[in-house]
Amino acid sequence: MSATSAPVAASRPIAPDLFTWPSDEPHLLGSRCNACSTIVFPTALACPRCGSDDVSRHELGRRGRLWTFTTQDYLPKEPYTGPETEEDFAGFGLGYIELPDEVMVEARLTEHSVDALEIGMEMELVVVPFRTDPDGTVVVTYAFAPVRSDGGAS
């Protein structure tokens, strides 16, 4: 998985209403409770804090801080499998990203090396290829990439 954006043509998100797509600057889609202002990800039909069903779609911020992380060095089980096999699986980073004044998001990281990750580092949302369907459609998912010193995602 690379930190570059997936091609827009012939692509689809891994799940509907998970993030804005196609988009040059995608956002994760959450819900905001209109009664108590709680924000959640992914979207919810009701507020988990107060129980109100008066919720609206909320585009989450694109940048946050790495709150904690680990690496996944074994092939995920169904329903989280991707195109990898035991022979070509390379592992990936997995972390919690704290989006300021919003919510904490669990996400794949584009970086796998523990030497390149640091708690508190700035991260940015990217959309990356996950697999290719039999018809050639690229299925994309979200991940977070470390922000380079020049301000872009790596």
Brief characterization of the structure:
The chain is mainly beta and 154 residues long. It is 0% helix and 39% strand. The chain has a 6-stranded mixed sheet, with no helix packed on it. Strands 3-2-4 form a 3-stranded antiparallel sheet, with no helix packed on it.
Please give the alpha-carbon distance between the first and last residues: 12 Å
Q: State the CATH topology of the domain at 62-132 and 139-147.
A: OB fold (Dihydrolipoamide Acetyltransferase, E2P)
Q: Give the SSE order as H and E letters.
A: EEEEEEEEE
Helix/strand/pairing category: mainly beta
Structure write-up:
- With 154 residues, the protein is an all-beta fold.
- It has a domain of 80 residues: OB fold (Dihydrolipoamide Acetyltransferase, E2P), CATH 2.40.50.
Please give the structural blueprint.
Elements: E1 11-13, E2 29-33, E3 39-40, E4 55-59, E5 63-72, E6 92-99, E7 103-109, E8 122-132, E9 138-146
Parallel strand pairs: 1-9
Antiparallel strand pairs: 2-3, 2-4, 5-6, 5-8, 6-7, 8-9
Features:
154 residues; mainly beta; six-stranded mixed sheet; 9 strands; globular
